[in-house]
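User: Hi! Is it possible to get a structure for several chains at once, not just one? Here's what I have:
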Amino acid sequence: MRLALFALIAASLIGAFQNCAPDHASLSSGSLVAFDITGNYPFSNDQKYFADVQLVKVDHVSSGFNYQFNSAVAPTDSSELDFLVRLRILDEQNADICAPIVASANRLSNSFEITDCRSASAKNKIYVQVEAKNLTDSEYTLVQSYEFLPPH
Amino acid sequence: MIYLWRLGLTFTLALYATIAFGEGYTVVPHFANRAFITYRYLPFSVNNQTGNPLPLVHVSIGSPCAAMIDPFRPHVFHAVCTQAGSFLAVATVRGDGETLTEVQVPIQQVRHVRLNEATAPVDVEWEQGRQLFFQSRAGLKACNECHGVPTAIRVTQNADSLAQKFKSSASADMKLYDNLFTPSEQAALAKFINKEFFK
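Assistant: Yes, the chains can be modeled jointly so their relative placement is included. Here is the combined structure:
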């Protein structure tokens, strides 16, 4: 009887602590070398928004080049409020390559795909500025800026 | 003997209560699912039943993703995946009453859209300096109109040295900029100048 009791407790302990063990797959599949997530951490302490922009495509078009981007902006807190996002796409001389994109966003809708940003000439560097503001704010705040070296 | 059975049962139940498994908790992705793409830091929070985010103790995810707790926001963790697919993170939160709870966080339909590796966020202060350098202000010329070539700025700057330049430059044009920039703007301008002209 005692043996059965100890076996029950031991089985319970093993069952409980199995969930605390590291994931076997993660140990064996090389996740430690896949991506330096802490070394590349891109956000600062005082940022009110998380943001990211990626260059998705560069097309040769009849009028020159078309650049496509994928971006996302979200508050760092758990705010459910709507906010405004402005994306500026600039060249090295700080001139707009195409018209700024202004969009309303919230927790459920905060991904923006820029599919039509045309330039007559090839750009060696492109900067994408992400700005955001609450609906009640008068001015946008610069959240993050990204530099791209587009292939042509 | 009955006492021993009760003791064992109580111990076992207490153990399971301490390591609960996430019932009643809500996973809150900060980005909409459409924004789930590779190499993007995808922020998540775990809220309790009253909607308050819980502090994170640990987060794990398997390859080809990595995860970390935000260094400045203990209620947020980030996952980054380097390949497309659907993945599962496990976040351990400190729940109400200090209970540790494991919560499974599905990260579904991550897409790969990035064109190349050249994506890099740039320093916000530097970016502000870059904007100021190219913008006219108060009807005056922008900095680049006179200092558009690297040789036009010969020494590195800081906020104070720039202020001094504007105040006591031999150039009457430069003096027009005295008190035109705030100290933080001067610092941003200096950062851009130093990085751009003294690489």
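Residues 132 and 144 of chain A are 10 Å apart (CA to CA). Residues 15-33 of chain A have pLDDT under 50 and may be disordered.

User: Great, thank you!
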